[in-house]
Amino acid sequence: MSNIGPIELIMLVLLYLLFCALVGRFASNRGRSAGMWFLVALLISPLIALLIVLVMGEGDRAPIVGAADEIAKLAALRDSGAITPEEYEGQKQALLAAGRGRPG
Question: Could you tell me if 38 and 23 are in contact, meaning their C-beta atoms sit under 8 angstroms apart?
Fold first, then answer.
């Protein structure tokens, strides 16, 4: 049995963490939570976590910023007089309610 020195142990741990981070990054590119998949890879195995992400396919890529953009457009319409302040508030509340129903 060969002894692993402290330098080799640190290198192995850093390599393991790097692979976990790469799984998180890959999951993020597929519309999944990078932090959650980093933790999953850390707990079970980067290889197994990567296989799970591959099998799960693409996640929801609907941007949260979309609602903010729509609200900004509505505000511009309200300011120009194209819609009333009441219409603006109604549309804004509908967009915010739809955003709250989105899974995180």
Answer: yes
- 65 pLDDT band (50/70/90 cuts)? low
Task: Give yes or no for a contact between 40 and 61, defined as CB atoms under 8 angstroms apart.
Answer: no
Tokens representing residue 15 in the block: 């390599």
Distance set, CA 43 to CA 25, 69, 76, 82, 101 (Å): 16, 38, 48, 54, 30
Alpha carbons 89 and 38: distance in angstroms, whole number: 40
Packing angle of the helix pair 85-100, 65-80 (nearest 10 deg): 180
Per the confidence metrics, is the pTM higher than 0.90?
Answer: no
**Rounded Cα–Cα distance for residues 23 and 19 (Å):** 6
- Confidence (pLDDT) at 16: 96
Residue 61 pLDDT exceeds 80? no
Domain ranges of the chain: 6-56, 65-100
Q: Residue for token digits 């990054």?
A: 25
